[in-house]
Amino acid sequence: MPREKFQTLTEQMFYILLCLKEECCGIDIMSRVEEMTKGRVRVGPGTLYNLLEQFQSADFIKETKVEGRKRSYILLEKGQEMLWEEYERLKVLTQDFERLFDNE
Question: Number of folded domains in the chain?
Fold first, then answer.
């Protein structure tokens, strides 16, 4: 059975949504993700704009401004809920790991 879209988030998806807690444009998102992760996660323009389009279609984000080719976005309630669900999922994974490795 195929996985439901956005059932879990990739690291790139997670950090893009996290960036959009505050309004920002694509180039800002790319640099913020790299800065937040100390270069561990990078988002290229093709991936970014594809995901932004998908997030808009899913009502996770909305476009707030258009200035020429520069577009800005912000996180919507549904996107914030998805981000929290992913955060909680990751916490459970971490707790399972710690519980299993603390017993050794």
Answer: 1
CA distance 83 to 15: 9
The CATH number assigned to the domain holding 87 equals 1.10.10.10
- The Cα 30–Cα 19 span in angstroms is 9
CA pair distance 3, 7, nearest whole angstrom: 7
Give the C-alpha separation, 4 to 27, whole Å. Answer: 29
Q: Give the ranges where the chain is alpha helix by DSSP (H).
A: 11-19, 26-36, 45-57, 77-102
Give the pLDDT confidence of 35-48 residue by residue, as tens digits: 999 999 999 999 99
Provide the whole-model pTM: 0.89
| Domain around 72 | 11-102
